[in-house]
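Data card: per-record layout.
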Amino acid sequence: MNEIARGTIERLIAVVGPQGAITDPDDMAPYLVEWRDKWRGKSALVLRPSSTAEVAEIVRICAETGTAIVPQGGNTGLVGGSIPFEGGDEIVLSLGRMNRVRAVDPLNDTITVEAGCVLADVQAAADEAGRLFPMRIASEGTCQIGGNLSTNAGGTAVLRYGNMRDLVLGLEVVLPDGRVWNGLRGLRKDNTGYDLKHLFIGAEGTLGVITAAVLKLYPRPADRQVAFAAIPNPEAAVELLSLAKDVSGGQVTGFEILPRLGLELVMKSLPDARDPFGDLHPWYVLIEMSSGEGGGALREAMETALARGYEKELVADATIAESEAQAQQLWALREGLSESQKLAGGSIKHDVSIPVPKMPAFIARADRALEEVIPGFRSLAFGHIGDGNVHYNPLQPEGADAEAYLARWQEVADVVHGIVHEMGGSISAEHGLGRLKRDEVRRYKSEVELELMASIKRMLDPDNIMNPGKVISP
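The structure for this 474-residue chain is written out next.
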């Protein structure tokens, strides 16, 4: 695409007014860089519309002039999907001003929100209505619903509630020609043809701009129990997960695994973090159960699960939070892992999913394979083992040069992703493809899948103006 014409820029600014347009390079800078500083893009204009009508008019002008659009939410993504390329011929469409909660319906257990709503604000609005919106991710204070939907975000409660695809009943979307599809229906049963919303969830803005959504709500838990347990190995984690689900009657909300190295990194990075146990252990799991009923039954279920785990030698030690403050402290040991990795130097990150029973074998096999490639690397495998999603992030060897190590990113990814594919897994569990994995996914998806994706893209966006170069190759 060519440089954006001055006349086009002026037309676009007129849609949102001076308060909704950013042209100063310094003010645009936060919109052009990825959270990990892996990509820095360029743009002549950042637009911040305040309504669906403004989004539709922006898209119509861009369709008429062949101007590429990069939709952006809270810009917390990790695969470069919300960052423009370096050519400067794309505009950034930031939805942050579209942050209204349009409706809350406690009887129907739904909340209708605009795409720019911050996830934590949606959680708070649900709580105020006596309900729960269960999506929980580390960036919830910054990320926005539109981005969560566009990447089909996962998080720590997928085991119980599912990912964003499972939490949505309806969408409002501006299509690549500027038309608005109003699919904001709060229906749990609507068997009238293709379920169009699923085209846009996980599409990373390549098929249209999500402007609003009807989300599912749930009863607010009356009881929540959080435990931190020391275990001998990942095999024990899988067995303990099954035991906990059986004992609790399916009330396990979260089940997270982390190795000793991960706990040590968190304790170094968080001043208040403490090791819950006196002895060192190779692996740990964080378990959360929640229920709509009080009365102590859930506490008994947690205690029973841990006791049986101890009897089966699945658990070496455990502690159960005695207060909400203690529960938050235990969760901090898991949630602090992403940020704390910066202390370890180079970290080559993988967001992969494997069938849960195969997770221990995957970790062991990947560790062996990478030791042959990079002797002395440090294995850091952690995450949502309850739903088969592990963040396998091998760290540089002690004392190694970080830049030289990170230069081997693709070499390491080839090893890890090859094993994932052989074991029936996915190379992207919850982060998406963006530009990081756009080309790599071609090695693992069938030609039929790729052609179906390309056909949908060509049909909805024939001029390739919606986030071009992301998710699927042109």
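Known properties of this structure: The chain has a mean pLDDT of 95. DSSP finds 16 helices and 18 strands in the chain.

See the next section for split statistics.
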